[in-house]
Amino acid sequence: MNLLKVGLIGVGGIAEGRHIPAIQNLAEKAVITGVSDINVHRAEQIAEKYDIPSVYENYHEMLPHIDAVIISTPNKFHSEIAVAALQAGVHVLCEKPMALSTEECDRMIQASKESGKILSIAYHYRFMKNAQAAKKVMLEGEIGEPLVIRTQGLRRRKVPGWGVFTNKELQGGGSLIDYGCHLLDLSIWLMGNPVPVEVMGSQYNLLSRTPDQVNLWGEFDYKTFEVDDHVTGYIRFENGASLLLETSWSANIKDDVENVSISGEKGGLDVFPFHLNQAKHGMLLNSEASFIPGDENPGNPQAENFVDCCLGLAEQVVKPEEARMVSMLIEAIYKSSLTGSSVKLDYRKEVESQ
Ligand SMILES: NC(=O)c1ccc[n+]([C@@H]2O[C@H](COP(=O)([O-])OP(=O)(O)OC[C@H]3O[C@@H](n4cnc5c(N)ncnc54)[C@H](O)[C@@H]3O)[C@@H](O)[C@H]2O)c1
């Protein structure tokens, strides 16, 4: 079997920490042959450290030499680079969020359809052992139809102090588009992708705009902080289910919290840590998992699924239409927060018209 030739565009923290080791673990199927970054010095350092043969200042020049690419640039560039890669006949794994708007997501999906190449988004929470276990339990009907979902990704004081995470133009937002997107994606996937009909949201950033910051993830300038650091959202679905979302980089809470809690018609579950909650045999029963199989590092199965999809060996776990849905909901939460009104969605009509 020919090795899949993989390139990387944007080789900062996540490319080095997650994607490069994960692809290099798959040496029997794939090889990293090139890297590109607007910071050429950084690209050269990475190429030397990880024994990658080619460095390209302009990513367009790399595309004819690779089969697949992983895009890990700031969010603003996801769409334009993904479209260029797909149009050049290259499979794409793009970092989350898929893009800054649903319009940009649509362009990516269109380019993928026209080229017949894979487009996937790095929503790696789905590959976590607990998430896979929860999905299995749900598919086996153990808790029945989901009714109420509580989604929380709360950090007490962890504004990312590196890169461009507090720059609205380059990232499109803060805690919601950067962190909440993972939990939102996981929740909707676990629910079986129901159709949303109405969204409300509120966003805050007062805590990150005050002097004398105490921040656990590096330093940032409170005077230029322009994105959200705490967001609440409420999503109502066509099937009657509802989802309560809360996410933060900065909040006056006792501890960080990360969980998706689903109350279904026959039972409920918590994903982190995994719990199954049931009313059965005349009792209230709580079960916890003492062993869940799988890789501790979700970056590995994520890379393997992408490579296998490119080689025609597997079905995509994260489909672009699902990642687009997350972007659509994020857009609606921000819009609702700005307008002070709920946002009605006509998703079915939108899909039918495409
Ligand atoms: N899946 C996750 O959990 C996760 C975690 C962290 C970051 N991310 C995502 O990955 C992306 C990058 O984040 P990061 O933490 O690695 O940031 P980073 O700042 O560490 O790295 C970004 C890199 O992209 C380069 N770059 C900027 N503009 C570019 C362009 N137009 N073309 C090519 N290269 C360009 C920068 O020079 C830098 O080396 C973001 O979209 C972020 O949301 C995802």
From TrEMBL:
Domain Gfo/Idh/MocA-like oxidoreductase N-terminal: 4-123
Domain GFO/IDH/MocA-like oxidoreductase: 132-269
GO MF, any single term: nucleotide binding
InterPro entries: Gfo/Idh/MocA-like_OxRdtase_N, Gfo/Idh/MocA_Oxidoreductase, GFO_IDH_MocA-like_dom, NAD(P)-bd_dom_sf
Annotated Pfam families: GFO_IDH_MocA, GFO_IDH_MocA_C3
Protein name, as recorded: Gfo/Idh/MocA family oxidoreductase
Species this chain originates from: Fictibacillus marinisediminis
